[in-house]
Amino acid sequence: MNTCYNHFHLLKVGISFALLILWSPLISAQEDNITITKAERTPSEFFAELERQSGYSFFYLEEWMGNIDVNKDYSNSSITVVLDDLFSGTNLNYYVLEGEKRIFLLQNGIIYDELPAAFLGSQDSLISKTNNIVAQNAPPPTFYAETKVQSADKLPLIRIGKADQQSLREAYTLSGNAINDRTGEPIPDLAIRVKGKGIAAITNEAGNYTIELPAGYNVITTSAMGIKDSEREVIMYNSGTLNLSLGESLEQLDEVVVEADAVSNVEEAITSSEEIESEESKNIPLVLGERNILEVAKALPGISSAGEGASGLNVRGGKTDQNLVMLDDAVIYNPTHFFGIFQALNPFTTEKVNIYKGAAPVEFGGRLSSVFDIETKNGNVEKISGEGSIGPVTGNLALEIPFKKETSSVVVGGRGAYADWILRSLDDESLSNSEASFFDGIVKYHHRFNENSEVRATAYYSKDKFSITSDSLYNYSNRLFSVRWAHRLSDRTSGVLTAGNSDYDFGIDYESEGNNDFELDYAINESELKYKIMTRLNENHALDYGLSAKYYSVNPGSIEPQGDSNVAPVDIEQEQALEGALFFGDEFKVSDKLLLSVGARYMFYSAMGKATQNTYQEGAPRNEATVQDTLRYDSGEFIKMYGGPEGRISARYLLAPDLSVKASFNNSYQFIHTLSNNTTVSPIDTWKLSDLNIKPQKGYQATLGFYKNFKDNMFELSLEGYYKKMDDVLDFKTGADLLLNENVETEVLQGEGKAYGVEFLLKKDKGDLNGWLSYTYSRSLYKFDGEYPEERINNGEFFPSNFDKPHDVSLIANYKLTRRFSFSMNFAYQTGRPITYPVGTFRFNNADYVIFSDRNKYRIPDYYRLDLGVNIEGNHKKNKLAHSFITIQVYNVLGRNNPYSVFFVTKDGEVKALQSSIFGIPIPSITYNFKF
């Protein structure tokens, strides 16, 4: 074979500048005289046998034979049949020189034995003499000079695809995935450009890209913030895949300004979405110096809570149960600690949260108001690293540990609280002997098998314990587990398979001096399986489609007596349900100015047995006296089915490169509800599944907004208006008893709601002074009307919800004095939330009774708060054991005694109003952060 190689090398030198792009093999028919029996042999041995039987000499390079399977049977076959089968699925072609009985193997390309007429300027078609096949508009041969690219970071020449005479085109599709070669994480927003041809593409969040390249020789460049620029030569013989593994940029700069997604707020089709990086909470002064990505979210327009220290978020006038909060694809039912003051997420393991207040991506469903999609970091695959903090209340630590270099890693995070002293310092004597503690832990494993497949698995657990009185110990916990497998199915298609399980439970341990000790328990559990496929159909269509299934299991509550207790045991019947969805979405580029995001989702739901359900008399109020029949359902039997189609459409129209108008509409179903008669969210609120008597909630929302960037994207401005309508939302009857009630449907009402508002956001990301100003004007109103007085609230008229706050202002500012010192400020103002006041008393049968106003007719005083902070970076020396960051903050600098609630007592024959506050004085804190 040495002589064969020498002959081939001489031939390569002679024709490499004029041949080798499109395949047009010129092989005449051969006699069927090749017979080879399957046996273990090397490619060299196989071709030696072919030479012996056919009389042809073969010319090739040994390194091309790595993926050739030569262990095959051939019986009385022609040389062309053998070679076509042998090279099927590879990038090898061949050329037969008949007169000299020689066959040349070719990598990717083919050999021309004459130049096409188009090469000399004629418009005639390329003609293959041997086969007499005309290839219309075929590209001319490629002439490649090895010294063409002169670059400090020149990468090896890449040949893509295998030339095929039957599919000659002027352009081919190149697709692939870009990853950071140190961490293994995908690189979003990587710019891929073709030199001198005005062609470009951008990678998506998963690092995937698709670009159309002219046939033949191209030079492509890549660039992204924090990633080293690269340049490489690519010869396109056909469509194919090129995965990019790129290094980080290590240049030392005076200042780094991150401009990724700088114009995404203007260019994206989706409306009412926000993204918050966990690092953004680093400099924002919050209570007790704790980083809190959910608290930062409340500083954005349209997002608020019922009050300071209240669990849950209210988005655009929706209830707290109308938010889908997900951590790595699994639902987390209560993402807060300590009555909502702290988040139940380790800030050092959390990467970011994507918030959708309008038409959410079509894969999400089951909630009316919003989606909070929280992502955990992938671990460092190069070396062990970590981050932590020590504060006045908690200690946090997160470690990133590589398992296999450049392939797999694990992230481990843990937090613990020593918070009892806070309760003792609150302005409430009844809390002075209370105690509270919490902890949470998370583990995430990430493994990248290759450029086309990766898996991640997350496990999370949190636990809270608190005692508000001396006889009761409350506890609640979250647990979740999820697995996600992302894989590429083809050059244009990838899939994501996720499985998750979530559990939330709470309990009360009651011990008293009498014989009435007991334990109360409640739990909700759900499991979900989802498969999503993403297809880049072409430059104008990007498709998302798939299906999901979810199983709910609810323990509505049980009481177990303890010791010699006289308390009777109670065990409410378990609830079960199935929920599923089929979804399809398309991001459709109509023109350079008009972009549409359309989606359809069909939801179906069924409550399941084993269960007992009551039916009630027609034309009578629903109570225990009007029970008509009791129906019993066997295990797995369907009780009641609900469902229907959901539509989602968003449109963006560019009025200018930095100015757009967007509009959206969506409708949605929600099959799960919270039961609460507290003014604010409580950890012991229970979840209720839709069944025979409680219908699912339905919602409709329309949004219109304008988005503008100023001064080279230094400023972002958005103005959005929305209108939302809700049907069959749940509320409680006056005096309702919701906990451990077997017939809870007799204590609740279902009515309608509406919410509308205008949201303003001005954001500045560049310069020494940065931050944002947001203002929201909004109304949230509910209406419960029925045929009977007990089914009406406020005479069946619309009334403000508990979280109706017409005016909401937030100002976040950070001023960088030097590279190490900065100052930060957080100011918030909100209209006082509604409240129900007593308006009079009357005496009946020698007893005094209080007359209350219509529900939520009055308001508590307005809320405002100013927080200040000083941030001190450690020195920036490279060779240090750890880099430090110190925050000194004062929460509620003005000492504003903002009311948490207002309640009423009767003293000396008079009804008096009392106010309870969470933090009525300035709260200083100092937190030490370190990173290694």
Automatic annotation (TrEMBL):
Task: Write down the membrane topology.
Answer: Multi-pass membrane protein
Q: What residue ranges are annotated as transmembrane?
A: none
Sequence ranges assigned to domain TonB-dependent receptor-like beta-barrel in this UniProt record: 438-892
Gene Ontology terms, cellular component aspect?
cell outer membrane
Main localization of the protein?
membrane
Q: Which PROSITE patterns match?
A: TONB_DEPENDENT_REC_3
Tell me the keywords, alphabetical order: Cell outer membrane, Membrane, Receptor, Signal, TonB box, Transmembrane, Transmembrane beta strand, Transport
The Swiss-Prot or TrEMBL record annotates one GO molecular function as: siderophore uptake transmembrane transporter activity
TonB-dependent receptor plug domain ranges (all copies):
289-367
Q: Which Pfam families match?
A: CarbopepD_reg_2 (PF13715), Plug (PF07715), TonB_dep_Rec_b-barrel (PF00593)
Q: According to the lineage, what is the superkingdom?
A: Bacteria
Q: Would you identify the family this protein belongs to, as annotated?
A: Belongs to the TonB-dependent receptor family.
- How is this protein named in the record? TonB-dependent receptor
Q: What is the species listed in this Swiss-Prot or TrEMBL entry?
A: Flagellimonas sediminis
